[in-house]
Write a structure and sequence with these properties.
heterodimer; A: alpha+beta; Heat Shock Protein 90; 2 domains; 5-stranded mixed β-sheet; 6 helices; 16% strand; B: alpha/beta; Rossmann fold; 5-stranded parallel β-sheet; 5 strands; 15% strand
């Protein structure tokens, strides 16, 4: 078994176990809420003889907080599950928009720490690459990290810093899936702050870093393009 | 709602026992088992109306329980509730005849809503068959029952 498939299998197991833990926490706090409501109804019925539980509202607030974190945890588990199963996929092609969406969710922390915003252009069309999801994700991730590093914003730098953080719209990184003809599909990674020279350097670095990979890297206006063979293309 | 015979099947004991308690507070008592083998035993002796079934369990897993129960007791409405959940699993479960597919964690009221719909479906199917049988249309009644097994 390859290392990638091993990691995928382990991640799927971890994701499954985590979901079960979250589900148990959710139901247990939910049960707490149920008994609080029950106690409240009983206190109403006794017309004040049995007083309302003093910390009822505080308990409800804490239960709501736990539920919010459970929802957050569920989202993370789903992302982990997608990631875990990504080495399994590929025969039918990888939807580039789906891959970008998944990458955004996984890269939230990186984006926040580098003060960039990630956007996906939703065209309504489906562009499928003839490559497994894991390889598309790896390629998009490499491009994203390249752009982020080129933007050069360090963690914690404020808009008064000299790193160019004072123009928020320049720190938006847009992913635009597309396709030309029947041969290729692509994702353009665009950022206003990326000049032609930086885009060329990044495209060259991506090409060098993935000599046998499923994509080719080039420069487009405002960024770089990762081009993949279109899935289902007749050879 | 206390007329629904609900069976909960999950090897995560803390989770499923708490779920049962919350269902009971909502006037839906249930029977709890912690394995696929135990679930099949209960189905054989005390057929439930609705089953909430986890997929990943040691021994006989949920997909196999689903397959067998759909073959032997097709009127049981089965709701999958799993922490594993791939698209492939969902597709497979629906093909095998699962009434619905939910992922954990799930809001109790959403789950209860699905249980009620599943029970309603079971009651409606039974009424259709009874009406046909009463009208003497045994052939159509048989066809409906066999359709359930598919």
């Amino acid at each position: 078994m390859s290392k990638v498939k091993f990691m995928g299998r382990m991640a799927a197991t971890v994701s499954h176990d985590l979901c079960n833990v979250l589900a148990t926490i959710q139901q247990a706090t939910g049960l707490l809420g149920d008994y609080l409501s029950l106690a409240r109804r009983e206190s109403f019925r006794t017309v004040g003889i049995r007083p309302k539980f003093k910390y009822h509202d505080k308990f409800q607030e804490i239960i709501a907080q736990v539920q919010t974190q459970v929802d957050r945890g569920q989202d993370i588990c789903e992302q982990l599950s997608f990631l875990a199963h990504s080495p399994d996929e590929g025969q039918a092609g990888t939807d580039l928009a789906h891959a970008a969406r998944l990458l955004f969710k996984l890269s939230g922390r990186v984006a926040r720490s580098h003060q960039v915003t990630l956007e996906l252009a939703e065209t309504g069309e489906t562009f499928k690459a003839a490559a497994p999801l894991i390889e598309v994700l790896t390629a998009l991730d490499a491009a994203l990290l390249g752009v982020v590093l080129e933007l050069g914003c360090e963690r914690g730098v404020t808009s008064e810093g000299s790193s160019g953080c004072s123009f928020p719209n320049r720190r938006i990184i847009r992913f635009v899936p597309g396709g030309e003809g029947e041969e290729t599909v692509h994702v353009d990674i665009l950022c206003q702050a990326l000049d032609d020279r930086a885009a060329r350097l990044l495209a060259d670095a991506l090409a060098v870093g993935d000599k046998t990979g499923p994509f080719s890297a080039g420069v487009v206006q405002g960024g770089v393009r990762l081009a993949f063979v279109r899935a289902g293309r007749k050879s | 709602m206390d007329k629904i015979k609900l069976l909960l099947v999950d090897d995560e004991e803390n989770f499923v026992n708490t779920l049962a308690e919350r269902m009971k507070l909502r006037s839906v008592p249930s029977k709890v088992v912690h394995s696929g083998e135990a679930a099949l035993e209960v189905v054989k002796t005390q057929e439930p109306d609705v089953m909430i079934l986890d997929l990943r369990m040691p021994g006989i897993d949920g997909m196999e329980v689903l397959r067998r129960v759909r073959a032997t007791n097709p009127k049981v409405q089965i709701i999958i509730l799993t922490g594993h959940g791939t698209e492939f699993d969902e597709e497979e479960a629906r093909k095998l005849g699962a009434f619905h597919y939910h992922k954990k964690p799930i809001d109790i009221d959403e789950l209860l809503g699905t249980v009620k719909k599943a029970y309603r479906q079971r009651v409606e199917d039974a009424m259709v068959v009874a009406a046909m049988a009463q009208g003497g249309d045994f052939e159509t009644a048989r066809e409906v029952l066999d359709e359930d097994k598919k």
